[in-house]
Amino acid sequence: MANKRVKRLKLDAAIVKRLENKNIITCKDILTKSSLELMKITGVSCKKINAVISLAGRSCCPQAQSLDRVLHGGLPMSSLTEIAGPPGCGKTQTSILLCVMAALPISLGGLDSSVIYIDTESAFSAQRLVEVAQCRFPSYFNSDERLVNLTNKVTIHNVTTCSDLLYRLQNLEEEMIRKNVKLIVVDSIASLIRKEYDNSVSGNLILRSNILSKQATQLKYLAESFNIPVVITNQITTRLKSSKHDEKTTNSYGDDIEPETFVTAALGDSWTHSVNTRLLIQYVDGQYRQIIIAKSPIAQCAAVNFLIEDKGPVEVEESLVLYNTGSMPLVAAIQVQSDVMGQQIPYQLH
Hints:
- This protein is an alpha/beta fold.
- The protein is built from 13 helices and 16 strands.
- The protein has helices at 13-21, 27-31, 35-42, 46-60, 66-70, 91-103, 126-136, 144-153, 162-170, 173-179, 189-196, 204-226, 268-274, and strands at residues 79-84, 114-119, 154-158, 181-187, 229-234, 236-240, 249-250, 256-257, 261-265, 277-283, 289-295, 302-309, 312-315, 321-322, 331-332, 347-348.
- The strands form 4 sheets. Strands 1, 2, 3, 4, 5, 10, 11, 12, 13 and 14 form a 10-stranded mixed sheet that branches.
- It is elongated, with a radius of gyration of 24 Å.
- 35% of the residues are buried.
């Protein structure tokens, strides 16, 4: 699409001729020039040139991915979107790609804005951010100046305690206004909670619930006040499956049977109700992952496979599965790679 001819953009014939005289033949050629350069070449106003750049950018943009279509255009504004999954499944990779998309010019399908990335695990990599940008949009990120501009648009805040995170969230408004922030990422929400609040200690569960409630309230306030998406990554945990029988049961031979367990998103049911959209990531095999829309107020439950490549998560064509019932089954076969003999564990969906 980047090699689409300028002649096919239905521009004024005089503009096309002037562009071609300067060897600007394709949409890609237009996007490698600044607005000022194009104004000098064509002799038209800034408003008209911006319209030309926007048209060329839309022509270069790939068609919306199937997951975006199911979500009616992408991540919902003014709400909290959680990405939960096992370690190494692609949560941070997805978050980094979202940073690139938010920083892209509007003409290329981005928001032309800044991002605040709150890193609780020191997982963010500026080198990976640049790699994803260069590999995914090589015709745009083709100069050091644009790459530096990208990195300047992503502000990293490293926090190490739950109180630090809450303080940071409560003091973001001025920075968001000053930097034109249109995306907040918290990676991850569970890391600090799990470090500071051991559930086996009496009273910690109440303290944990209180701090999580305050963090969720502040995140919702920022999302709604600035009409932006807020993305939060979450870890997973193993629980005992509830049963009407006693936890300790026996089979027909009288042998003890260990209670059945399942894997679910961490932080409990109260946190589940705090997020508006829940995306779950599972392993399909050693190469493929699958992202599932498990909870959404506007979208049908669906799943799509993807790969992690140099340019970030890449959707596998024709892998979309829609659940016509309107909701996911209570227990779905979401696979989690285990360190023990490669075992896989079912994932509980809420």
